[in-house]
Design a protein that fits this description.
Family: Belongs to the IMPACT family.
Strand order of the largest sheet: 2-3-6-4-5
Order of helices and strands: EEEHEEHEHEEHEEHE
Pfam families: DUF1949, Impact_N
Number of helices: 5
Structural class: alpha+beta
Organism: Oceanisphaera ostreae
Protein name: YigZ family protein
Distance between the termini: 15 Å
CATH architecture of the largest domain: 2-Layer Sandwich
Length: 209
């Protein structure tokens, strides 16, 4: 797994243009997994039932993960819609995203090259308008400490931009921290050093947020 943060859509977007009397409408949305991508594609089909084609592409995870990609030409000549759309998504470096471009045919054929430019270009222009936010990949760390050691933990959480997932105050303090996965080794080493070996953080399962 790539541990680096990556961009995801901050909000859905609809963008359209007309090319030689055909209308191309791009729908973009945040879809964290393949199931969400398929549901969004179905929702666009339901919203635009009269369109001649509902071509789509998705990156349902991290942008660098080739296992979470999909695309469809939906009746357009092979390679003229879904593939150039996927190329636009991958080129933008945005993850957890699905794009559907619907076409209302205007009576003028565009040819294979024209279709590639129309679908890829429509999505490119739509992506330029898309608001994005950063998705950071976190790992959870379990730990137990004395009250006197809490300032050390709080200081390191500030340094590494981590946070408590939950915390319990008893005879000792116990809880779970969330720290970016790429920083876990450094964080644990710093915690061990600064607490003089008294506080050990144990990694649990990773999460994204």
């Amino acid at each position: 797994m790539n541990m680096s943060p990556y961009l995801i859509p901050a909000a859905p977007l609809v963008w359209q243009q007309e090319i030689k009397k055909s209308r191309f409408i791009a729908y973009l949305a945040h879809t964290p997994d393949a199931q969400a991508a398929k549901e969004f594609i179905d929702a666009v089909r339901a919203k635009e039932p009269a369109a001649g084609h509902h071509c789509w592409a998705f990156v349902a995870g991290q942008p660098s993960d080739s296992r979470v990609l999909g695309f469809s030409d939906d009746g357009e000549p092979s390679g003229t819609a879904g593939k150039p759309m996927l190329a636009q998504l991958q080129g933008a470096g945005v993850g957890e995203i699905t794009a559907v471009v619907v076409r209302y045919f205007g009576g003028i054929k565009l040819g294979t090259g024209g279709l590639v430019r129309a679908y890829g270009g429509t999505l490119s222009l739509a992506m330029a308008q898309l608001a994005v936010i950063e998705r950071r990949i976190f790992s959870e760390l379990s730990l137990t400490l004395q009250y006197s050691e809490l300032p050390v933990v709080e200081f390191l959480l500030g340094e590494y931009q981590g946070h408590w997932q939950h915390i319990d105050y008893g005879a000792e303090i116990s809880g779970v921290l969330a720290v970016e996965m790429r920083d876990v080794a450094d964080f644990c080493r710093q915690l061990l050093d600064r607490s003089q070996g008294r506080v050990i953080a144990t990694p649990l399962t990773p999460d994204a947020g």
